[in-house]
Design brief:
Blueprint lengths: L21 E10 L2 E11 L4 E5 L6 H8 L7 E6 L2 E2 L6 H7 L1 E3 L11 H5 L14 H14 L15 H14 L4 E5 L7 H16 L3 E5 L3 H7 L2 E6 L2 E7 L5 H9 L19 E10 L2 E9 L3 E5 L6 H8 L5 E8 L2 E2 L5 H6 L2 E4 L3 H5 L6 H5 L3 H4 L9 H14 L16 H13 L5 E5 L7 H16 L3 E5 L3 H4 L4 E6 L2 E7 L4 H8 L7 E2 L2
């Protein structure tokens, strides 16, 4: 596919009978010398789910900040229903027009559902005291209106991630907005929660609620969206009906390159290699009776729902959790459960499930983040690493992993999501581990960064590293030599390389016994 100059085409922006609910017209936004948006444009029609896709750094987040009134364009216009956007100071006017549910929840865990729904606008009675009963009644009416069946007195900390999102959507709609931006909403969800979210989106669409859906998971675009806008390098590339845009063309528009369809890994005979990781009858938080073996240079995938115990198993292997019973050894040496520094010193490395909360120290530089694990195994006197050595290490990994950064001294928080994840991977690989555990390694990053990170798994094969990939994404598991499926904390089936998507999904959902059954 050849992507031409950014002018709306037939079936895309500017041809709908109904006036656009939200528009960005020739928008330019600069941050110093950096051009974050260059004549970008977007038209979202009432009642549709419109996908906004592009690689990290394409300009999506900047466009969202303009659509939600957090920033003002340097030139161009933001319109709602054909009318100019309110002034940035009029927050209530913005809330009536648009709401954004971010990947990182804004729900306060210590408050109840009702308190979160009416945060900072609680109904009051005599003496301006909070009218608690009226607040709970109004919260129940609001949730019922939008089909959210959650008790209003439930502490938000007890909600699933999916339920928190539904509460955020209901809270947004309560201000009067009928345009909701969902920013990477499925990144923290398992398949069952994703289907629930999509079902709720379809119901709300029927009630004339409009969604701008931002996701790096392209299959979801085809599941839930009617139109798609592609951005690349701060520019608008194309807007098309989803039904008229094959996946290969969508990827090409995002990357500027033709990319072949992915194929499953070819089976490899590893029977002659020594076992590197041996797990025997292991029981811990949310799993029990787990036994498995990973040979040198083998890549083992672990799949399952959010309640399967797969995350807890992974975090146990890397020292984040203790065990209740069972054993695990790395090259015949017991793994130090519940002790991360000892696990790192034992040549175990991890890319955690949440790069923001677990993977990075936002206030530190790229160099400091990339060298964090070295302090546990290769520090000099007094447990320190010289700044010069830190910078050398960082410059090497920046080149090896193609990390886009102004420099190794730049704060890691200034990088795009894909480049931040590469820094997390660099930190894990810095110790040349014998066991590498990857937990949802490509969550929230663009398609090109995914290819780069998963390509590193092949490098680990060549080094004879044992790799365990725990993921909700089928593409992450495609590179694995075999995939174990966990349900209710137990290994139920094993699928060799070359598995079919339908078979693996059926096993995850408990709808099939295909594959090798584990008794």
């Amino acid at each position: 596919m050849s992507v031409g100059s950014p002018t709306p085409s037939a079936g895309g922006a500017g041809t709908h009978a109904r006036p656009p609910l939200a528009q960005a017209v020739d928008v330019v936004k600069r941050f110093g010398p950096t051009v974050a948006l260059d004549n970008a444009q977007l038209e979202v029609v009432p009642g549709e789910s419109h996908a906004l896709v592009g690689r990290n750094g394409a300009g999506k987040s900047t466009l969202v900040s303009l659509l939600t009134g957090l920033a003002r364009p340097d030139s161009g216009r933001i319109l709602f229903g054909g009318e100019p956007a309110p002034s940035l100071a009029d927050r209530n006017a913005w809330r009536r027009r648009v709401a954004c549910v971010y990947q990182k929840s804004t729900i306060i865990p210590q408050l109840t559902v009702a308190e979160n729904v009416f945060l900072n606008r609680q109904p009051t009675g005599p003496g301006r005291f909070i009218a608690w009963r009226r607040m709970r009644t109004r919260a129940r009416e609001l949730l019922d209106q939008w089909g959210v069946d959650i008790p209003v007195d439930t502490p938000a900390a007890d909600l699933s991630v999916g339920d928190r999102q539904l509460v955020e959507i209901a809270r947004s709609l309560s201000f009067g907005a009928r345009f909701v931006i969902l920013d990477e909403p499925t990144a923290p969800l398992d398949r069952r929660e994703i289907e629930r979210l999509f079902a709720r989106m379809r119901v709300l669409q029927a009630a004339d609620v409009t969604f701008l859906f931002i996701s790096h998971h392209l299959q979801e675009v085809y599941e839930v969206c009617q139109s798609v806008t592609v951005m690349r390098d701060a520019r608008w590339i194309t807007t098309r009906p989803v039904a008229l845009m094959p996946r290969t063309e969508l990827v090409e528009a995002m990357t500027g390159e033709w990319m072949p369809e992915k194929t499953a890994a070819e089976p490899r005979d590893l029977t002659g290699r020594p076992v590197r990781l041996q797990v025997s009858d292991l029981a811990g938080d949310a799993f029990s009776g787990v036994s498995l073996a990973v040979r040198q240079g083998e890549v083992l995938g672990v799949a399952g729902s959010s309640a399967s115990g797969k995350i807890e198993l992974a975090e146990t292997l890397v020292g984040l959790r203790r065990v209740k019973s069972g054993t695990a050894t790395l090259d015949d040496i017991p793994i130090p459960f519940g002790n991360v520094p000892k696990a790192i010193a034992s040549s175990i490395a991890c890319v955690p499930r949440d790069r923001h909360d677990q993977g990075l120290v936002a206030g530190l530089s790229v160099a400091e983040n990339a060298a964090l694990t070295l302090r546990s195994v290769r520090a000099g006197r007094f447990g320190t690493i010289s700044p010069a050595r830190e910078r050398r290490q960082a410059r090497r990994v920046v080149a090896d992993l193609d990390i886009k950064t102004p420099g190794v001294e730049a704060p890691v928080s200034a990088l795009s999501g894909g480049n931040q994840q590469k820094v997390v991977m660099a930190r894990a690989l810095a110790t040349d581990p014998r066991l590498l555990v990857l937990i949802n390694p490509t969550a929230g990053i663009d398609v090109k960064s995914k290819e780069a990170l998963l390509g590193l798994v092949d490098d680990m094969r060549e080094r004879r590293t044992a790799v365990v990939v725990i993921s909700d994404e089928l593409d992450d598991l495609r590179t694995c030599d075999r995939v174990l499926v966990l349900r209710h904390g137990c290994v139920t089936t094993e699928h060799p390389a070359g598995w079919r998507d339908n078979d693996l999904v059926a096993a995850i959902e408990g709808m099939s016994d295909e594959g090798t059954t584990h008794d």
